[in-house]
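Below is a concrete protein record.
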Amino acid sequence: MRIDILSVLPELLESPLQHSIMKRAQDKGLLEVHVHHLRKWAVNEYGQIDDYQYGGGAGMVMMCEPLAKAIEELSQTVTYDEIIYLTPDGKQLNQQISNGLSLKKNLLMICGHYKGIDERIREHFVTMEISIGDYVLSGGELAAAVLVDSIGRLLPGVLNDETSALFDSFQDNLLAPPVYSRPVDFRGWKVPDALMSGNHRLIEEWRHEQSLKRTQDRRPDLLKDL
């Protein structure tokens, strides 16, 4: 999979993409991430990519021309399955969206800044708008890092145990069950008997029951879709 990211502050993406699982995915050749500085397509020698908004009001707007030029130039060599704009008013990211995007071949992500991007870019270029939550960040870079991570870990071969992602929270609209490790008894706090039974059917039943209980207690809204 290839992911291109348009950013005003590409430095913000260096650390999240160069460590841990995302680094492993790239080192294995399973994921390519290319971060492009939008000022490469600035409208003048001063690196301008934003301007005042029509109609007045506080805050600058990312201009049409740099974004359009960047998207068109990158699209000359890569056919994008989705051009994604990270924005607070987009569709809220969930596991199903990440699952679907992990099946794509090429993605382009646009990181917004200031008051956002000119609406004409959204109308004529953007094919998908995603929010990572009902709050506002200083820019779209952190949201892009979250999205890349949620997609990249699903690619076959990225995780050491490929079945691990299948049992994450939200994969089946349930939260993941509690997990335990050694020792069996810590300060009198013991691992549940079912997990120590060696009975795989009993273990799976226990985990499913615990997932249902945890979802009912913490995210009952998820159960309405089951």
